Every structure is written in structure tokens, then in C-alpha cells.
Amino acid sequence: MTRPIIAEISSSALRHNLQVARNHAPQARIMAAVKANAYGHDVRVCAPVLTAAGVDAFAVASLEEAETLQALALNKPICLLGGPFTAEEVLLATERAYWLVIHEDRQLAWLESQIPHRALQIFIKVDTGMHRLGFAPERLGEVFAKLQSYPHWQVLGLMSHLARSDCPQDPFNDQQIAVFERMVKAYSGRTLGQHSLANSGAVLSLPSTHQYWVRPGLMMYGLSPFTGKNGVDLGLQPVLSWQSEIVATRHLQAGDWLGYGATWQAAEACRVGVVAAGYGDGYPRQLGSGAAIRVAGQETRTLARVSMDMLFVDITHIQADIGSKVTLMGGEGPTLESLAQQLDTIPYEMGCRIQMRVPRSLRA
């Protein structure tokens, strides 16, 4: 690596956050969500650490993500939350012993057309009110009737997803939980009883949702699913520290313009650092002027527009020069939650923005 940009991943923080999930749901098994490249943290770096720490299974969004995880040879179950997207994926899932989440009629037809020669383990997703994926509750009887015709299919359990777990007091949670509990009571006998409902927000705040499996995602990376709270407030530790360096400096006089579009003008003489990071790396262009950033251990701000490969920082009143370390977010820099709030988005998106051209490195 020659370009001085890296995202450091803390193994101790990953282990700590997994233990926090266990402490909140001590009777449940942990299916860690590592979809979207472990929420931008790099599944190749994070999954081995979680495996060594004793995670019980992994959840991904697609067959392609499952194959990336499979190549790591971690010997943990892999659940495809989106289920199969083609009939051919059913056969490959069977060969790999992936778990499939079945949520619509087309997938049932694919199962019927691709009868495997060995057991295929699946979850049945029920729509408890989010209306994104899943069978309507009144259709589960029909679904299980079809499944009974094929002894190679093992239904691990029912699965659903909460729409408002980031707002634990919202009564919509109670409605979804009630529907799910009714379906579990009605159909659990036709499954292996391995039901799953809780995501990060529910793991942390809705213990009644802790079924056989819980599926923590965002909290595994030390981030809070709750507006107005950071991961540290919840006893979590941030996993990612995204760093770069100053690669050039500029002295501007009052009236000088800076960057693309000449949108930022110096009100007085100032000193500017050019940092090797830009929107091509996933640093949000909207954070171009006035965003918190840390340079050589000192707090300062960004200036002007973010370029594809570079951005500007104000080093007028701090001790910094070419080669000085810059923490873009996480670690000792601004939290992903605070930057997400500034952009009117969510921490999930902040990590997922970081591009693969940014190397990830594991540290203790």
C-alpha cells in the first residue's frame, strides 16, 4: 500500500460487542449479520474474529455474499436472508448447506422444481406488519402444507423483521411481536423451533423478541441503532477507525478560493491540509465544509468541496504538516453516528459507503 488511507478494524471491539449481545440475550444463539461486506467493515476481516469469539452463525443477503464467506472456511452456518433469487441457487445452497429464508411463492416453486438429494434447511419468513418480505400470516397453513410433501426440506423456524425496533416504546413493535408469537404458537410444531425475530435494536431493548436466534447487525460494529445515542452509550465499542494523512499543505490569503467550483473563500490568511481521502473512497461529499475531523490528534474541520480522491482540512490553528495522521471517522475521530446525524441519514449507511479500494487492517 502506498496511498496513505486505511480502515482499521478492532478485533477486541468485535469480541466485546459480541459479548454485549450475549449478555442481553443469554438464552439465544447469535446469528451475526455480516451482509453488505459486514456493514462496510470487511467480512474477510470481521468474520474470522467473530468465529474465534464463538458466534453461532452468520447472516448474509445473497448467494454471492455467502460464497465470499464460505471461501473463508470458518465452518459456521450461513443464512441467506434474501433466500434464493433463481431456481439454480437452490441446488447450490443445498450443496453448500446454506440456510435459505423463503418468503414468497416463486421461491416455493423453485424448491419444487429443484428437489435436492440431501436435506435443505430453511426458515419461513412471515410478514408481521412491515410489508417488505414474507408470507401473510393467514397463508402459513398453505405454505406448510406444500412443504410437507418434501421430506428433504427441514424448516428450522419462522423468521420476521421489526420495523420500529429503533423506537422501543413504539406500539407498532407490540403489534408485530403479537403476530409473530401467534404464528409461533400455531406452527412451531411443524418446525425445529429455531425462530428468529430480534435485530440489534430488539436485542438491546426488547427482550420479549429473543427467540432461539437473535440477529445482531449494527451493534456488532459498535454502532447504535437508536437516534440520539452512540454505541458507547449502550456499552458498545467502535470497531472501525478510518484514517488517512495530509499529503500537501497550502497557505491561503484572505480572498483566495479553494477547491472545485471555487465555493469556499478564505476570510483571512489560513493554512490548509490536503488529505488523501475523497468521495471515491466513500467519504460523503456532503461533508465538504464544516464537518468535524481529527488531525494529529487535534479537532478541526473540513473545508470546501470533497474531491474524488482528496479533501481539505483547516490546520491554521493546530500543529500539523505533511504526513500528519487524519482520522476521518471512528476511533479517536468523529463518531459514525454523529456524522450520520449531520447528513440526516443513519449509521448503517456511513459504514456501507466505505469503498473496497480502502484497505482494511485488523488490530488488537
UniProtKB/TrEMBL annotation:
GO molecular function: alanine racemase activity; pyridoxal phosphate binding
Domain Alanine racemase C-terminal: 239-363
Gene3D superfamilies in alphabetical order: Alanine racemase, Lyase, Ornithine Decarboxylase, Chain A, domain 1
The reaction(s) this protein catalyses: L-alanine = D-alanine
Domain of life: Bacteria
PANTHER family: ALANINE RACEMASE (PTHR30511), ALANINE RACEMASE, CATABOLIC-RELATED (PTHR30511:SF0)
Protein name: Alanine racemase
Species name: Acidithiobacillus thiooxidans ATCC 19377
